[in-house]
Design brief:
Two copies of one chain form a homodimer.
Chain A (H helix, E strand, L loop, with lengths): L12 H19 L10 E2 L10 H18 L1 E4 L3 H10 L2 E3 L2 E3 L4 H5 L6 E4 L8 E4 L2 E4 L7 E4 L3 E4 L2 H13 L21 H12 L11 H15 L1 H6 L4 E5 L5 E3 H12 L3 E5 L2 E2 L8 H22 L5 E4 L2 E4 L6 E2 L3 H16 L4 E4 L10 H16 L4 E3 L4 E2 L4 E3 H17 L7 H4 L1 H7 L9 H6 L15 H6 L5 H15 L7 H16 L7
Parallel strand pairs in A: 2-11, 7-18, 8-20, 10-12, 12-14, 13-15, 14-17, 17-18
Antiparallel strand pairs in A: 1-7, 2-4, 3-4, 5-6, 8-9, 15-16, 19-20
Helix pairs in contact in A: 2-10, 5-6, 6-7, 6-19, 7-9, 7-19, 9-10, 10-11, 11-12, 12-13, 13-18
Chain lengths: ~525, ~525
């Protein structure tokens, strides 16, 4: 009930007291940053949803162990140092194939932290990754962008900056992300510099660096050093990077060199298999999960061999295939159920968990897109994911970042944050006095308990229309994508960049200019 | 991968064997009725998601007990027999107010079955309600219908019949529902006859009867007797009926007389509070849940007092309110989390659980509608609901039944059925041999394990588009609502009524004609 419906002069003492308490609460709430809990990320109060029993989990773990011991992982591309590290650790290295005796990886992983802080340049935006924390980060890696006005087109650096600004402006996201889109108007070998700069300049949140070449990883880390100071990076995670396995069972040298670069600098690596069941792994979920577990543990362990204690995140990216089209499908039920199991495995391994995200193959921000994205996002929450990449903007099987979907997804992130609060059962929540006050057949609109609690009672998604059909119809009968179209434009219009120390800004610009001058443009 | 990609003459023995086994499986699958498990409803293989601990649950139960003992429930409208039954059972009856000593309701409810079968005229469609069973039933009660061609309009009997046909035609729904829409072109006092007849004539699934007056309940039950034989109803549940509490804490005589009519005939009653937090109950979830628990237990117990052992279902309908519009909201996070707790309470009470459904306040089958519906449907599955009403068609805060949303929701029911299968961990699922066969860096497309498993591996929603952007764009660039529009029309075109015994049909028609002649038309 809107405040306007409360006659300020006619309330009972309890009501007036209620109004004043409600106002205090509203003030407190606004003073907090992004969540009701006052944290820069969600701190979940609901348990994880564990669907498999001990015996089944052990069967999966044992299968992963046997894959690693009997089939092994190939380290392709000539990263001799990685092979050397594995040999020293006690693995069986034959050519590029590494086989892992049972027990080796858990032993190596004992040095990996179960949770860590990623610092942000605004300390109030530093996030906890691990434990009961949940961080929402934008979608990652699309070469295209879409909006309702212009359709699909190649993404540019201007789009990249827009999505950094939108993530910064959203109260429901916690992180600036990484390659939020590919800025295809910048040479491939230079775009990482502009991307990292955009994250630093247009946001004050945590961000991710480049993984496409070792020197680009080093550049990204160097920019984090310029921002935070070199010393700070020795003790804190200031930049994350997302590394993909070349599933099945291959780690490419570009990735392993990158992992080692970040680990060497004590920075965070997120290790993610990419398995479309039936293509890069078995069509059966349990097999795909066993494979993913094997591939992920190897990547996480490699970071530990390079530098024990470096933050690592156990990543999960399961998907499925359409029998009709032969295409990948996203947001379908099998990967959702599979993610719940992956969550159990990650916790048993003692590692923070990354899960994805607002998946969909739809090409529009339509019913299909949110049916699939909600399914996938719910699974990410239920499985206990700590870092949820692709939480906003994902369309078109990750080929396109959508402006409208971004703000719709951000709304859903807000709803999920509330869901993570669970059901509180204090005396106030139980409201026994309210029943005594109101009694059978009467309404609770103006009762003291309602007045004292209504402002924080319910999440109200900004883009959801809850008006009557008549009101909605008279206002133009718009769908939620149309509302989203106006919302992202308004957010960009109202955007104000957070202040950045001028000396740091200059140092970053100098570094970028110097690095760009040192190499010719490469476009592929 | 489509079958067409397999060269039939060039496969290895394992592949050929795989193809033939896959064909067998496909045949078996088609032979089954609506689920892979061969049951007419879902049998879940995943646990319920229990978010509250014992202590919190006891606090809620104790609050419900105190509401019942101290505030009580009013039985309004002059159903003297209900008051008499409560007095005989040991409740404190003062005027229309009944107060329940702690322990009375659990004692009365000991006779209620924890699960039961609702028989259908096609025995293969009889559903189990309770335990690990899940039944999806269409939305219930909208006065309007909507489709993309004609917008919103008052529902007619022709619409009613259409939705019965659509539910019958969907492989993902298990039940024909009740008042799927209000047939507003038929007099209020006669429409129940046409509705029950439509369920019987145009479907062969379980259905629900009228609750709007005792004599309409009796008519509905009489029609079930004509269909199944009077004797059969003495031992089996052949018709369900959904009764709403007049929340807060009021049971209306129309409802209590109806409950007793169905229970007297040994038929199933679903007891459902209707609480919009802040209006018919407290704005805090725990309080609303305690209230709902109290109201539901009283309705279920009343059925037991009328006839011990009559099937009853513990119903759940939580919702929230928008602070912006003051309107009810549906598919929001608080009721979703609340439903998980309600599920725990229903299981502790030993009763089958009804939960809702594909909730939304959106006026279109758009992104908002599926974001909200998926949230609500996921909660219904996670909380362990056995009978999920409003599983398809819900739009506009239940004021409108949507043709497009109906088929989109039905698709989502199919996805949830697959989700309920969880993750199977057999030797075949773990696929260790496939890893040995394929090895690092190769694809699983043609391997023996893929060939043997791919046909049943992944759920493929009929209305989801998984093609490439280019394919999708060339095919017209349609959204999922557009595909849904064509789908429901095709389903109605292809609909064929299940055969109905002519003598039964005649008996039903005679009964309806006789009953209609006996009363004047009433339009309100």
């Amino acid at each position: 009930m809107p405040v306007a419906t409360i006659p300020p002069s006619s309330g009972t003492a309890a009501q007036i007291d209620g109004v004043s308490r409600a106002r205090d609460r509203r003030r407190q709430r606004r003073a907090r940053s992004t969540t009701r809990q006052g944290a820069p990320n969600i701190v979940r109060r609901i348990p994880t949803y564990d669907i498999l029993d001990e015996e089944s989990l052990v069967r999966i773990e044992t299968t992963a162990e046997r894959i690693l011991a009997e089939v092994g992982i190939e380290f392709r591309g000539g990263d001799a140092r990685s092979l050397e590290l594995w040999r020293e650790a006690g693995a069986d290295v034959t050519g590029e194939t590494v086989r892992f005796p049972p027990g080796l990886l858990p032993e190596v992983l004992r040095s990996a932290p179960s949770n860590f802080t990623q610092i942000a340049r605004n300390p109030a935006r530093s996030v906890e990754i691990g434990g009961s924390n949940v961080v929402f980060s934008p979608a990652y890696g699309s070469p295209f962008v879409m909006d309702l006005d212009r359709g699909r087109r190649y993404a540019t650096l201007a789009d990249f900056e827009n999505f950094v600004k939108l993530a910064y402006s959203s109260p429901h996201l916690h992180h600036s992300g990484g390659t939020v889109v590919e800025p295809t108007d910048v040479p491939v070998n230079k775009r990482h510099l502009d991307m990292v700069y955009a994250h630093i300049r247009f946001s004050d949140r945590g961000f991710m660096g480049s993984v496409t070449a070792e020197e680009r990883a080093e550049d990204s880390i160097e920019m984090a050093r310029l921002l935070f100071g070199a010393d700070r990076l020795e003790t804190a995670c200031a930049i994350l990077a997302n590394f993909n396995v070349n599933s099945p069972l291959v780690w490419d040298a570009t990735m392993t060199r990158g992992i080692r670069a970040y680990a060497r600098a004590n920075q965070g690596t997120v290790i993610v298999p990419f398995i479309l069941g039936g293509a890069m792994g078995p069509v059966t979920s349990a097999g795909a999960i066993a494979q993913a577990h094997a591939e992920t543990l190897v990547g996480c362990a490699l970071a530990q061999l390079e530098r024990p204690g470096a933050p690592v995140v156990y990543g999960n990216f399961l998907s499925s295939m359409s029998l009709r089209s032969g295409s990948p499908t996203f947001g379908t039920p099998e990967p959702a159920a599979g993610s719940l199991v992956v969550g159990q495995l990650a916790r048993r391994a003692g590692l923070p968990l990354r899960c994805s995200g607002a998946f969909t193959t739809s090409k529009l921000p339509d019913a299909q897109s949110m049916m699939e994205s909600a399914t996938s996002m719910q699974a990410a929450i239920l499985c206990g994911a700590n870092f949820i990449l692709h939480a906003a903007g994902f369309l078109d099987g990750l080929l396109s970042m959508s402006y409208e979907k971004f703000v719709l997804d951000a709304d859903y992130c807000g709803a999920l944050a509330r869901y993570c609060e669970g059901v509180s059962v204090t005396e106030n929540d139980l409201a026994l006095d309210a029943f005594r006050e109101v009694g059978p057949g009467n309404h609770f609109f103006g009762c003291g308990h309602t007045m004292a609690n209504y402002e924080t009672a319910f999440f109200d998604a900004a883009l959801s229309d809850n008006t009557t059909y008549e009101e909605w119809s008279e206002a133009g009968g718009e769908d939620s994508a149309g509302r989203a179209n106006r919302a992202w434009k308004r957010m960009l219009d109202e955007y104000e960049a957070p202040p950045l120390d001028e000396a740091i800004d200059e140092a970053l610009k100098d570094f970028i200019a110097r690095r760009k001058r040192s190499m010719p443009d490469a476009w592929y």
